[in-house]
User: Fold this.
Amino acid sequence: MLYPQRLGQFTREHADTVAALLCGLLLFLGWFALHLGWLGFAFLLLPAAYVIGGYESAREGLTTLFKEKELDVDLLMIVAAIGAASLGLWRREYHLIIDGAILILIFAISGALEGYAMQRTERSIRSLMSLTPDTARVLLQGREEEIPISQLKVGDEIVVKPGELIPTDGIILSGYSTLNQAAITGESLPVEKTVGAEVFAGTLNGYGALQIKVHKPAQSSLIQRVIRLVEQAQTEAPPSQEFIDRFEKGYAKIIVVAGILLATLPPFLWGWDWETTIYRALTFLVVASPCALMAAIMPTLLSGIANGARQGILFKNGAQLEKIGKVRAIAFDKTGTLTTGQLQVFQVVSVSEYTQVDVLKAAASVESSSEHPIGKAIVQAASDLNWVAAIEVQAIPGQGIVGIAQEQQIIVGNAVFVQQYVTNLPEELREIAQSWEQEGKTVVWVARGVEVMSVIAIADQVRSQAAATITRLKKLGVEQIVMLTGDNQETAHSVAKAVGIDRVYAQLLPEDKLDVIRRLQQQYQTVAMVGDGINDAPALAQASVGIAMGISGSDVALETADIVLMADKLEKIAVAIYLGRRSQLIVKQNIVVALGFILLLLVGNFLGNINLPIGVIGHEGSTVLVTLSGLRLLK
Assistant:
C-alpha cells in the first residue's frame, strides 16, 4: 500500500514532469508507428500525446481568454500545434503532426524546467517559514506542558532547552546561553544572551537552558512579520513587471493579427504555396511569442529578495529592490541609526586625589536608584566594581540626584545643581566640561560632601560600522549623504564628523525631516531614508526607499519602511544597493537576450532556414536560459 501512496505523492509534486515524460513516450511510439505505416495506431497515440502534454497550457490559455478576455502565449502554442497537425492531415504529410507534437513536448519540458527553477527561489524564501517550531514548552503551575504556538499568551513563561529553536519572541527571565541568530538577522557569529535580553523566534539556542517570558503575541514576532512581508513581496509585481505584463497583452494581439496576415497574403504577394505559407505562419506564432521576455524580470527580483533575506535584508517587494539600485542620495537619522541610541559613559576626568574607580563607585551608588538613562549609563559603566547602594536618595527631575553612601553625601547632576552643595567648581574641570558640551556630549558633575570629585561625559555611542558604511556608499557613487536629527547642532555635527557626513540638518521636527526628503527628491529623484523611530515614519514614507532598523526600530517605522535591516547592521545598506544594481543589470541582460532570440528566430523563419521544432527549441531554450540567468542572484 505504501508504494501507490508514494507514487501518487510524486505524481502530484511533479505533475508537469510526469506529463512531459508521458507526452515524450507517446510521441516516440506514435512516430515509430508512422514509420512502420501503422496509421491507426499512430492516430491513437499522437492525439494522446497532444492532450497529455498540452492540457495544462490549453487550460491556462482558455481560462485567460474567457475570464480576462486576453490572449496569452500558452494559447498561441496550442493553436500553432493544432494548426500543424491539421495541415499534416489535410496534406497527408504526417510528419507535420509529429512537428506539432514536438512543439507541445518541448513546451511541456520547458514548463517543467521553469517550474523547478522557480521552486528553487521559492524554497529559499519558504525556508523562513520553517524556522519556528509548531509547539512551545510552557510552565503551568510548576510543570512543563507543550502547547501550540498559536495558543501562547502574553505573560506565559516558556522553557527552551539547549539546541532547540526559540518558539516566539520574549525576554529571558533566567539562564545564560549563546544564540545563533543568523537565520533572522544575518549575523554570522552566535550572540551571548542572559537575563533581561530579548530573544527572537526562529533563533537557535546554544548550550544553556533558558526560561523566557512572552512579551508580545506570537503572531507579532519578528519572524512572523518577516514571513508576512515576504509573502506580500512575492505577490506584488514591481513597475517593470507590470509594464511587461501590459506589453504582453498588446503584443499577443499583434502576433495573432500578423499571423493571420502571414497565413493569407504571401501566396498573392510573393507566390508562396499554401502549405509553406501556413507552416511559416504557424512557426511565426511560436517564435514571436514573448515567453523569454515575460521571464526576464520576476525570477531575478525574487532571487534578489531571497538573497537579501539570507543576509538579514528584508525587501518588502520587488519594486524596492529595483529602486534601491537607482538611489542617488541617502538621508540618515542620527539617534538609533548612526548611533546605538543607548547612552554610555564616554570619559571620566577627576581631580588629583580621586581615581576613575572612586568616581564611578560614588556616582553609581546614588544613580542605582534612578531610572534616568544617564543614571543607567553610569551604573552600567560601574557594573564590574564593588559599590553599595546609597540611602536617603532624592532625585530632582532635570537637575540631579543626591544620597548618602558610606556616611558621606554624594551629589550627581548638572553644574547648577552641584554648585548648591559645594564650595566651588574647579576651573580646569569647567574648561573640560565646556569643550565636551561644544562637542554635543552631556556633562555630569560628581561631588562628595563639599568637594567636587569629577566630571563625566555621557554620549550616545556611534555605531562601530557607521563610518565604514558612509565611506562604502561614497565609493558606490551615492552623490549626496545627509544626516537628519532633532538633536542640537553641536551633537549633530559631532556625530556627523565622526562618521564622515558633511551635510547636517539639526533640530528638526518630523515634518521638517519630510520637507528635507522632498527637497532632496527634487534634486536627486531617487532618495533613500534610513531611520528607526516613530518620528522618522513620515520621512520613511515620503522617501523613494525607506530603510528601517529591524531590532531598534519602532513598529511604525518597520511598517512604513520598504526595506528592513534585520540585525541593525548599517553595512547591509551597501549590500542592498549592490543587489539592486546587480538585479537591474541582470534584467537588462535578460531583456536583450530575449529580444535577440525573437529577432533571430523571426529572420530565420522568413528566410526559410528553420522548421517548427527548431523554432520551438530556440523559443523555449531562450526562456529557460533567461529564467536560469535570473537565478544567478541566489548566489
